[in-house]
Write a structure and sequence with these properties.
Strand 4 and strand 5 form a beta hairpin. Strands 5-4-3-2-8 form a 5-stranded antiparallel sheet. Strands 1-9 form a two-stranded parallel ribbon. The longest helix is centred in the last third of the chain and has 27 residues. It is an alpha+beta fold and 228 residues long. 35% of the residues are buried. The protein has a single domain, classed as Butyryl-CoA Dehydrogenase, subunit A, domain 3, CATH 1.20.140.150. It comes from Ploceus nigricollis. It is found in: Membrane.
């Protein structure tokens, strides 16, 4: 018989697992990992809101994507164009970034799998006599290690030609040059930290769903058990 068990700790772990998976996925897909040096605007380009000259534009560069401003020959305006600069994996700008993409993709795949499974932990608390929370916590720990490896390797690719074109000639491995870090990089770091928090908190979710109070509710014949 399926017992639906919902506790404050198990629900919090489930929600946090879903948030972490989405945060890492969005960061990975974003082009805002590096913010390039400012590109001066033409004196003919006017800001639609103020009527004055536009502020210098700073293009952004991601692991496999970029955002830049393109000029229109017929009009004195520019549009921002975002998309992948690499049509396939081998065209990613640096071997280090290729490794970063692999490690991050592996970590994100595990996190998305755990996030999907976590939804069903209200009905299924064990698999082959193993606590599903402990199994998911272990997988989240492994995913966190993959994410760390990816984030460590990423700055080693700052010396590639693509990064130098955005960050200037002083850019090199672990040196930003004229660039600054974008929100996607910080989101990936924050998501990695939360991944390990999820891995640790999974033990608390397991304790909450297997407590004596839960067992008493099951013995009383209740199928829906909600506890703080």
């Amino acid at each position: 018989m399926c017992h639906v068990i919902v506790t404050c700790r198990s629900m919090l772990w489930t929600l946090l697992s879903i948030v972490v998976a989405f945060a890492e996925l969005i960061a990975f897909m974003s082009a805002d990992w590096l913010i390039g040096k400012a590109k001066p605007s033409s004196s003919e380009e006017l800001d639609n809101r103020t009527g004055g000259p536009q502020e210098p534009y700073r293009p952004t560069l991601g692991i496999y994507g970029r955002c830049t401003r393109i000029s229109h020959m017929q009009f004195s305006r520019r549009d921002t164009l975002c998309g992948p600069y690499a049509e396939n994996f081998s065209e990613i700008a640096s071997g280090f970034w290729q490794a970063t993409a692999i490690f991050l993709a592996m970590g994100i795949m595990i996190l998305c799998t755990v996030a999907f499974v976590s939804v069903f932990t209200m009905c299924v608390q064990s698999i082959m006599k193993k606590s599903i929370f402990n199994v998911c916590g272990l997988l989240q720990g492994i995913a966190g290690l993959f994410l760390i490896l990816g984030l460590i390797l990423y700055p080693a690719g700052w010396g590639c030609q693509k990064a130098i074109s955005y960050c200037g000639p002083y850019a090199s491995a672990y040196k930003l040059g004229d660039c600054s870090l974008g929100w996607a990089f910080y989101t990936a770091i924050g998501g990695t930290v939360l991944t390990f928090i999820c891995a640790v908190f999974s033990a608390q979710a397991e304790i909450a769903t297997s407590s004596d109070k839960v067992q008493e509710e099951i013995e009383e014949g209740k199928n829906l058990i909600c506890l703080l």
